[in-house]
Design goal:
Length: 447
């Protein structure tokens, strides 16, 4: 593909301009989201005790984002950002959506335009397979928020990977019908994704598939044979670490099955594939965030910096790296561009395609970005925050502790806080205050 065509791609002209001489065929889009995957829990990210050949292949076959962040330290808010291209507190999801009202910290704004809404406008068939976590009832069921097809789990986490219940409730659905599948959740979701890909093979309309796994979220329950294999190989790993490794390797195996099905369907050459995680690894559950400090629920790098890659055969050169600051919410406008759409309504994410094809404006590195989470328990129902611009990052890990300022470029492991009297500290704190003021007008409890 010529440089001229790649240059035109970022404004969508590759899909919409007949003079380029290319077919008008739009690529399928598959977004694969892991749950609580540690930054160091991929062998391609330096994991020494873990083997993830199928995910590694995705990273090798496209662009690896080396400076990619989840929008939050926990699940629901990040997923809200993926679905809307906005900061989660601007769409009513500052915290985790749960079964019981007393422990529920979000209500997904029904007025927001979702990513599947946009894909439908572009002529895509849309499906969610796996974990939703943005609403347990109307008006926030997946098929009410843009998805043509839903086969998965509505809730936050499964209390057991085999019985699929949460607080005794069955949240497994096909569209809006309660179902009772048998087997390990990772196997089930992969089977359903494979069925969907096979069913759509050869269709004239492209498909958008959001494949959202529960793994490796706790409880850490790999199939016994996978755990046994890891224990034989990694004799120095303790029980919890061995379980986490096995759960991730089982996930990797199933992602390989899905990718093989895509190849066998003849659609791999006309598909864009995104892989990432909703937040950092949960350290008490045996996850590894590599050399990063902290983990899930923390604003340190280990809680929000996540693995991410994008594969587009024939368009993105294998082995490419992007060091641009990128967030989950950026996937919304990026994938809209892939689909030939311009986003006319206001969002917070930015299109990453220009940077991938040598047309970056520098916006990625110069923008102010925010992270927040509201939670009960030890957090007292309050929010805690982080904000970053350039190399400077201001953070706290609970609402009750003082902010710390780090230079992430000079101090990537966040070991040496800078002076609170610095100009950067005051500027970031002032900008964060304005974000909090703006987001404060967005209701996050169901009316």
């Amino acid at each position: 593909m010529t440089h001229k065509l790649l240059r035109n791609l970022y404004i969508g002209s590759l899909l919409s301009c007949p003079v380029l001489g290319f077919a008008q065929e739009k690529p399928n889009i598959i977004v694969i989201l892991a749950d609580d995957l540690g930054y160091g829990d991929l062998s391609c990210n330096g994991g020494k005790d873990i083997q993830t050949p199928n995910i590694d292949k995705l990273f090798a076959d496209g662009v690896r984002f080396t400076n990619f962040y989840a929008n939050c330290t926990v699940s629901s808010p990040t997923r809200a950002s993926l679905m809307t291209g906005c900061y989660p507190d601007k769409v009513g999801v500052p915290g985790v959506i749960r079964t019981y009202e007393s422990d529920n910290w979000g209500f997904f704004n029904p007025e927001t335009v979702t990513l599947p809404d946009m894909m439908n406008k572009a002529g895509y068939q849309t499906a969610l397979i796996g974990k939703w976590h943005l609403g347990l009832e109307s008006p926030n069921l997946p098929t009410e928020r843009g998805f043509d097809f839903f086969h998965g789990f509505l809730g936050d986490m499964m209390d057991d990977y085999w019985n699929h219940l949460r607080h005794g409730n069955n949240y497994m659905r096909m569209n809006q019908t309660e179902i009772f599948p048998e087997g390990h959740a990772t196997d089930i979701f992969s089977d359903w994704a494979i069925e969907y890909i096979k069913d759509k093979a050869g269709d004239k309309d492209p498909f958008f598939l959001y494949l959202a796994y529960n793994a490796p979220h706790f409880p850490i329950q790999p199939p016994p044979e996978w755990l046994e294999k890891v224990k034989k190989r990694e004799k120095s790993a303790d029980e919890m670490r061995a379980k986490n490794i096995a759960l991730v390797e089982h996930l990797d195996f199933n992602i390989g099955r899905v990718m093989n099905a895509l190849k066998e369907s003849g659609e791999s050459g006309n598909s864009v594939i995104i892989f990432s995680s909703d937040n950092g690894g949960h350290l008490p559950s045996g996850a590894s965030n590599g050399i990063l400090r902290g983990g899930k629920q923390e604003m340190y790098e280990g809680g929000i910096k996540v693995p991410a890659c994008m594969v587009w055969e024939g368009t993105i050169k294998p082995g490419t790296k992007s060091e641009k600051l990128s967030l989950t919410m950026d996937l919304y406008p990026t994938l809209c561009s892939v689909a030939g759409l311009k986003v006319a309504h206001r969002i917070d994410g930015i299109d990453l395609l220009p940077g991938l094809f040598g047309r970056s404006t520098g916006e990625e590195d110069n923008r102010m970005v925010y992270f927040m989470r509201r939670e009960g328990g030890m957090y007292g129902g309050q929010c805690y925050y982080a904000v970053r611009k350039g190399s400077y990052k201001l953070l706290q890990n609970t609402p009750f502790e003082n902010y710390q300022l780090f230079d992430i470029v000079k101090d990537p492991y966040e070991q040496n806080p800078l002076e609170v009297s610095s100009e950067q500290f005051q500027d970031l704190k002032s900008e964060l205050a304005q974000h909090i003021r703006g987001a404060g007008s967005i209701p996050w409890q169901r009316p």
